[in-house]
Amino acid sequence: MSEDQKQIRALIERWAVAVHEGDLDGVLADHADDIVMFDVPPPYDGVRGRDAYRETWPPFFEWQAQGASFEIVSLDVTAGNDVAYAHALLRCGTQKELADNPSNRLRLTLGLRKEDGRWLVAHEHHSFPI
């Protein structure tokens, strides 16, 4: 595994812990100002910009406070010199949701770019299978 892949893996793992802990500053860290996110809930045309991205998280944290999990099951990273992508599967749901459908996984795809020697998430996509 290259040093860039290690850095990106650590970035994503930190982000997932921040999401699970409801740490908004940690969630926003390492995200580009012009982030584009396509998420499970609306808006249907996605979220554009760091401020809009920030606004999506409080409702998720409220839902998650009911005892939901958010944990990485698998993570793959491919990195070039200045762009990279990663895809992951996560256990995301309440205890009841996970008990009712234990194989259900949140699918995560990230696009990253390197700016001034630092990896930043420029695109984030979440989805569940229907």
UniProtKB/TrEMBL annotation:
Domain of life (superkingdom): Bacteria
Record-annotated SnoaL-like domain positions: 8-130
InterPro entries: NTF2-like_dom_sf, SnoaL-like, Steroid_delta5-4_isomerase
Any Pfam family: SnoaL_3
Signal peptide location: none
NCBIfam families according to UniProt: SgcJ/EcaC family oxidoreductase
Protein name as it appears in the record: SnoaL-like domain-containing protein
